[in-house]
Amino acid sequence: MRTEIMGVGFDDLTLDEAASAAAGMIDAGGFHYVVTPNPELVDRARREEPFRQALNGADLVLPDGIGVVYAAKILGRSLKGRCPGIDFAGKLMEHMAKTGLRLYLLGAKPGVAEAAAARLEARYPGLTICGTHDGYFKEDAPVVEAIRAAEADVVFVCLGAPKQEYWMVKNGPATGARLMAGLGGSLDVFAGVVERAPESWQKLGLEWLYRLKKEPKRIGRMARLPLFLVAALGERGKAGKRA
Ligand code: UDP
Questions:
Q1: Which residue of 137, 188, 193, 212 sits with most ligand 1 atoms within 8 Å of its CB, as the best mutation to test the pocket?
Q2: Dist. CA 77 → ligand 1 center (Å)
Q3: Scanning 72, 82, 126, 154, which has the fewest C-beta atoms within 10 Å of its C-beta?
Q4: Res. 41 pLDDT band, cuts 50 70 90
Q5: SS3 state of residue 1
Q6: What's this model's pTM, rounded to 2 decimal places?
Q7: Sheet holding 154-158, edge to edge
Q8: Which protein residue's CA is at the shortest distance from atom 24 of ligand 1?
Q9: Residue-range domain boundaries for the chain
Q10: pLDDT, tens digit (0-9, with 9 covering 90-100), for 138-188
């Protein structure tokens, strides 16, 4: 059963539970994909039906931002906590390093995925990165073919939202991969191009504020967060009246 937040159904899992669910999907075979919406994306899904379908059609829907957890609280629903895509990726790579699964990195500016690959192989001994591709390509077919030829089991799709979600839905099955995860700017962090908030900020749920400090141009995107919480309050009000 999923926890519904403003039209998007979230899986209520801890990070460890999410990683083992993903491992089970890889073992099961067939194609699966994972999305990690933050409030900005949930808000977008309210206005863009095909995007809402792409999110809800995923095999795992993890709450990336603290704002989603706040919205759940406002709506009186349960979510164990934040499950940031980048931390989910870390847990999954630990599992992949142990089991010999093959990882492909797709996205970010030219050179970034290669740099990320080198750093990740050093950080997770035994991890096999079977290929990389930047995220600024015009045609999908050669990229699909490259992933297929690399015999990837898992692909981190880091093209930014909503491009990455649509890309996984459209092209995922043809690549032969068993699991894809849409992970936004994670390759920039793995490559060391962008710095993540210190752990103390993350624990306080202030990762968004740190990001804003580093990239002030995000203010317009982030300004939607309070509006999103106000909308959650409105939805609670409606539900209260119906009850
Ligand atoms: N990106 C890409 N192809 C595109 C547009 C964006 O590979 O056509 C990459 C971009 O270089 C960055 C990531 O997608 O690495 C998006 O990062 P952002 O921080 O905006 O995403 P978020 O995590 O906020 O979804």
A1: 188
A2: 31
A3: 126
A4: very high
A5: coil
A6: 0.93
A7: 60-61, 32-35, 179-182, 154-158, 102-107, 128-133
A8: 184
A9: 3-238
A10: 999 999 999 999 999 999 999 999 999 999 999 999 999 999 999 999 999
Give which of 188, 187, 157 is closest to 172, Cα–Cα.
157
Q: Is the CB of 84 under 6 A from ligand 1?
A: no
- Cα 227 to its chain centre, rounded Å, is 22
- Which residue's CA is the nearest one to ligand 1's atom 25? 184
State the distance from the centre of ligand 1 to the C-alpha of 222, rounded, in angstroms: 16
Return d(Cα 233, Cα 201) in angstroms, integer: 26
| Any atom of ligand 1 within 6 Å of the Cβ of 160 | yes
For residue 27, what are its two tokens?
């073992």
Distance (angstroms) between ligand 1 centre and the Cα of 102 equals 23
Q: How far is CA 121 from CA 7, 26, 96, in A?
A: 38, 20, 11
pLDDT at position 36 over 80: yes
- Using a CB cutoff of 8 Å and minimum separation of 24, what contacts does 77-84 make? 77/3, 77/4, 77/5, 78/3, 78/12, 79/3, 79/5, 79/10, 79/12, 80/12, 80/13, 80/14, 81/14, 82/205, 83/13, 83/14, 83/15, 83/18, 83/36, 84/36, 84/207
> Which atom of ligand 1 sits closest to the CA of residue 85?
23
Give the atom of ligand 1 at the shortest distance from the alpha carbon of 185.
17
Q: What is the pLDDT of residues 59-68, one digit of tens each?
A: 999 999 888 9
